[in-house]
Description:
Elements: H1 2-14, H2 21-45, H3 52-56, H4 59-73, H5 77-87, H6 99-116, H7 120-137, H8 144-147, E1 149-156, H9 164-174, E2 177-185, E3 190-197, H10 201-214, E4 219-224
Antiparallel strand pairs: 1-3, 1-4, 2-3
Amino acid sequence: xxxxxxxxxxxxxxxxxxxxxxxxxxxxxxxxxxxxxxxxxxxxxxxxxxxxxxxxxxxxxxxxxxxxxxxxxxxxxxxxxxxxxxxxxxxxxxxxxxxxxxxxxxxxxxxxxxxxxxxxxxxxxxxxxxxxxxxxxxxxxxxxxxxxxxxxxxxxxxxxxxxxxxxxxxxxxxxxxxxxxxxxxxxxxxxxxxxxxxxxxxxxxxxxxxxxxxxxxxxxxxxxxxxxx
Length: 229
């Protein structure tokens, strides 16, 4: 029994797989390239109201870090068990305001896991299939300019809450489609963000006039999704 325990302890502390430097560099480069392509896809097809280009800059380091961790951990059972213990005490408090952002972060982690586990073909095929699915789902993004889809932000710098019901009525009269994406209310400022579409530019001008008639202290911002990112 002592001999068995002795051998098992040696297995835990000494059993390590050899990592080829050439394969590691290749996998790391592929990870960076794939994550960069994912950033371009996110900037083009994403719908988050935050600056997608800045958020997308985190994709490459996240994927590469994940790949590095998996490469190191897979070489030793002891390191694998240690990682489980380390993760049990780590708490993340990142402010993820859009579910879409979380989806792309999971894709980044999946890229790092795949290349770190040396599953290059599976990772590339899975990534391409995911990108194709995103493109098909968001195929309407290619028609954004023609359909006049814009982000609309309405805010004020007072303690008075926005009259959301009246604002929605005005939007329904002067736009083809409205989608409330975010509503922030606080003691000193209030803000509502919408995705809207218009038949022509005259609707935008009329909407602007009606909003200021409702409250001339409003701050109204129109953002064209195809031009700001």
